[in-house]
Design brief:
With about 325 residues, the protein is an alpha+beta fold. The protein has two domains: about 110 residues, Double Stranded RNA Binding Domain, CATH 3.30.160; about 180 residues, Porin (Beta Barrel), CATH 2.40.160.20. It is built from five helices and 15 strands. Strands 5-6-7-8-9-11-12-15 form an eight-stranded antiparallel barrel. Strands 1-2-3-4 form a four-stranded mixed sheet. Strand 5 and strand 6 form a beta hairpin. The radius of gyration is 53 Å and the shape is rod-shaped.
Length: about 325
């Protein structure tokens, strides 16, 4: 008998109820199987177990006896198929022994409650930031805001300006337009610059119109202030051609006109707002035109597009990056 092997382990005591049901097993007496099984399991199952009885289900076929044992307390279940005993008197004991063997072979697994589900490990909390950490983070954020990636690029800038010409002689206002092609190498670059300006000086005896066309080369630079704002400057030397034409208001008034080649030096400074591709610039300009043409109306001051001039220019610049680096 298998049951006495475990007596010293679990101790003796009254057996818990065992509920045996049989399906399609002919004349098999389920109650007798239950009684014999309780005798076999008496030394194995502690009476203090309590709760609902063990459930044993027997299912018979022509050659197979299917045994299923379930403990409602732990929710564990075991099953085994054995050869069906012959349908003769006394086979209840053979069936009870088969069930007892199955039970005693796995009694510890059956009667042990399922372990609780493992809890997912809780990651440790990162240490709270200190004042030093916050200071370093703020300094890094400020540095990122002040410095943005530089790039080599080609830019096209078009603009318009208002200028005051011949400031040291006979000042008059002109309007101007410029086109610039820039090649930036980091924070500095080269520019090719062209433009024209023109205006009319009105006199009591007639009007004098002035036109000046320029084309030249120069250098340009910029310094980043924030991620969007920068400050830049440029200087250029240009060849120029100008014409000043006078027109009298009445016959008999002498008017003189002239055209001449000339040259010009100019500088500009101002802020720029924008991103890596598009920017808007506002420059204050100062320049001087050499060997200017002159025009006059009789007994009036002569008008020239030369001499010292100043102006205010607004430009739109569009850039095409060539290679990534760092800059304004």
């Amino acid at each position: 008998m298998i049951a006495p092997v475990l007596v010293g382990v679990l101790g003796l005591g009254p057996s818990p109820p065992v509920n045996v049901t049989a399906h399609q097993c002919g004349t098999l007496d389920a109650d007798e199987v239950s009684r014999l099984l309780m005798v076999e399991l008496d030394p194995v199952v502690d009476e203090n177990r309590g709760g609902p009885p063990l459930t044993v289900t027997l299912s018979c076929s022509s050659e197979i006896l299917a045994i299923a044992v379930t403990d409602p307390v732990t929710g564990k279940r075991m099953a085994r198929d054995v050869p069906a005993p012959a349908d003769v008197p006394g086979r209840e004991r053979v069936v009870a022994l088969a069930v007892a063997q199955l039970f005693t072979a796995s009694w510890l697994e059956l009667l042990t409650p399922a372990p609780p589900e493992a809890q997912a490990p809780v990651p440790p909390r990162p240490p709270a930031p200190t004042i030093a950490d916050e200071t370093i983070a703020a300094a890094r954020a400020l540095a990122r805001a002040r410095v943005r990636p530089r790039s080599r690029s080609i830019a096209l800038a078009v603009g318009t300006a208002v200028r005051g010409r011949a400031l040291e002689r006979a000042p008059f206002a002109v309007g101007a337009a410029t086109v610039e092609l820039r090649a930036y190498l980091g924070d500095v670059g080269l520019l090719v610059r062209g433009g024209f300006d023109g205006g009319v000086a009105r006199r009591s005896l007639g009007d004098v119109s002035a036109l000046l066309i320029t084309a030249g080369l120069g250098v340009i630079g910029r310094v980043a202030l924030t991620r969007r704002w920068s400050f830049g400057g440029w200087t250029a030397a240009s060849a120029a051609w100008g014409r000043v034409a006078a027109k009298a208001r009445a016959p008999g008034i002498r008017a003189a006109s002239s055209s001449a080649a000339s040259g010009e030096l100019a500088v500009g400074l101002g802020p720029c707002y924008g991103g890596d591709r598009i920017g808007v610039e506002l420059d204050v300009e100062l320049g001087a035109t050499l060997r200017p043409p002159e025009g006059l109306v009789d007994r009036e001051r002569s008008v020239t597009s030369g001499g010292v001039w100043t102006g205010l220019a607004l430009r739109l610049a569009v850039a095409w990056p060539l290679a990534q680096g760092a800059g304004r």
